[in-house]
Amino acid sequence: MIDNLLKEILRDAELSSKYNISEEVIKKAKLAPPYENKVIEYLAVIIKSKMVEMHGDITVYNKVKNLIK
Amino acid sequence: MASIINQISFQNFFNYYGPLEDNTYEFSTGVNIVVADNGGGKSKFFNGFLWIFYDEILDSDTKTRKTIKNQAVKVCSDKAKYEAIVNDLIDCNVAIEFSDNRFRYRICKGFRIKKLKSDASLIDGSDWQVFFKGLEVSKRDIQLLEFHEVYDEDEQRRILDKLIQPNLREYSLFQGEEIDKLIDFNQADSLNRAVKTLTDINKYEELEKITKYVADRAEKDLNEKVSSNDTASQNYMIKLGEKEKKKTSLTHELEKLKSYEHSYTENKAEVDRLETLNENAEARKDFDDKIKEQNNKFKSIKEDYDRLVEKLNERFFDGNFGWIAMGCGKEIVSFKEKLNRYREERILKKAAILSEDKHNHINLLPPDSPDTVTLQTMIEREHCYVCNREAKKDTEEWKHIVSLLYRKESGQNKSVQIFKNDLNDFFGDIQLGAQSYVGRIEGIENSILRTREKEQDLLDRITKVKDKIKSLKDERSHLIIGDEDNMTDARQIMAQYRGALSRLQKSEDDIVKSKTTIESLNDLIRKDEFELSRMRPQDTPKEYEIHLDIASDIRNAAQRTRVRVFNDMILKLEKEANQHFQNLIKYNELAGGILKFDKNPRGTIDFNYVDEEGNEVSGASEGFQRMKVLAVLMAIISVNPYGYLYPLLADAPLSAFGQGFIKGFFEETEKVFPQSIILIKDLYDIESENKLNKLGNELLNNDSVSTIYLNQIPGNLKQIEVYTEHKKIPK
């Protein structure tokens, strides 16, 4: 159910164009790793943390902040 | 995987007398129907669900929901209470079993009551002691047979919520007229609340908020990092300051937008309210006109009636049918006989006197006829009106007429020859017939009968008009909102309406302007961000920049996606709603209107019911109104990509709306709800062999209908012994 949310955001024309996300990739996109693309990982972590694990905003931020080193 | 109710059982619950196993209904996916006539236990059945979900039951006397804690004695079967002896304990339970793709769950709520007195009242709580049990929940793997108790209260609650989520229960569990309140088209927020509850559009809003938070934090972290770097140029800091100012302006503008949206919502509600009121005012005026017309009619009939009553006295002495003569018909005959006898005797006496002289003649015309005036006329006109012949002057005939004129003086009466004639009856009848009362005596009874019929007709018309006036007044009273009846002046309502409309227009304009300002500020901020990215010191950590870049892109994508998904949803909603609506009403002779959904400036949905030309349709029948609500509810569920995951439980959802609507409803329900359990009277037919009417038997043979149960009360039972029997009708 939540996977659909991820896919809908990835279907945004500007986002998919800037990060070269194909329809093929979008169809396969899931909240669970492995991720095809850094943006997908970033977005998946936000969605999973906030909407599945029900974390607070600060925890969500700290999780995504650690994705880019 | 949707939750499916497998069975529901009752023990001594209202009419459901006896142990759970005697009152168990088994259901499966698709449409499940329980058919029962009035008093057959439909609402009691539904009360089982109300108890499980809300610890309430619907009090059929007051039509209000009451907590079961105070209703236990009333809820328990009368038959069980009646049969109990002092100190007996009676169990009263409702148990539901349901399953998803992994587990089968069992939820049971119940209590026991103990009889304290031998002559205990069946409803008085003080004669009984009540012991409530806690919620009992157990579950088993669908592959296994044994249930295991669930003791953890949180787990118990989660299992109950799995059956139907608390926020969805109002859309999943309803009784009769409650459907109309599910989506109140006169309440601007009602539809939007249903859309937010039943679709995942909320998730997009939630995502928009969290991505904005993440992007703002990423920017803040980056700026802090750059600001702490000594190599940051003064220009960079100035630009950063400018950007912060714009962000502050943006925050203020967003606050203003919120206030405009709030104002829009308030004014929209006011406009909707006044539109309803205006419609009511117009409808009231229609009713007033109709009531006035009926009052005039009443006045006119009442006048006719009063006139009829006033004239009753006159009718006793009326020249045509003097009712006072009623029953005197025999007296007239008797009078006539006596008169004839008198004449006969009188003539015979005269004849006896004259009989001595055989040359004397006497005619038996009435005495002294023709009269003097007639004789004079006959002499002057030389014509005999008795035999209608000429009597020329000085002829024998003329002289005879003259002699008759002077008969008294001449003693002619004594010298005429006596002979008998039959003119007595003839002249007697003329005399009697000339009397206005006499000829019509026979018709008096008929006249009275006609008058009474007329009186009854007037009284019937008076009653009919009075009833009509009462009914119009009743209908009119439903159009009164609060004390608004005092504000009957439609112009006053219109003035308020125009004011509210103008304020609504202003808030719409404000929202549009504010959104333009926000967009423009966002553009400027993005430009500043771009410039700042170029002005950042070389040694700014790349990960901070990448972090901000991705976070900003995701935030912007989340914003655009929410708008796109919402716009797409409105289009789908309109398509689905009209499709469901047409299917729901397809067996009805009247064609319905078009359901129209539009996005308003506030970004929520406006709903209208229009005709093919786009004109708003009002005054649709109750059946169509309910079908509108059901169509929109079904559409909202249908646009949800995951469908609906809970059963629909409805008691008398379409009572008295006709077989066409019912047929459409069953066909359409199956497409939307994974399971439905419908309690209904309208498929019952006492004359039919299996107690189902034509539509009931059609549904029985329909593949989408899984089960049909029939509830019946055995005949010839005292009220205290009443209990419900049920049987599954074989397909």
Automatic annotation (TrEMBL), chain A:
Protein name: Uncharacterized protein
Organism, scientific name: Emticicia agri
UniProtKB/TrEMBL annotation, chain B:
Keywords, comma-separated and alphabetical: Coiled coil
Keyword Transmembrane helix: no
Organism: Emticicia agri
Coiled-coil segments: 264-311
Keyword Coiled coil assigned: yes
Gene3D superfamilies in the record: P-loop containing nucleotide triphosphate hydrolases
Cross-referenced InterPro entries: P-loop_NTPase (IPR027417), Rad50/SbcC_AAA (IPR038729)
Domain Rad50/SbcC-type AAA, chain residue ranges per copy: 8-304
Protein name, per record: Rad50/SbcC-type AAA domain-containing protein
GO MF annotation: an example: ATP hydrolysis activity
Any GO BP: double-strand break repair
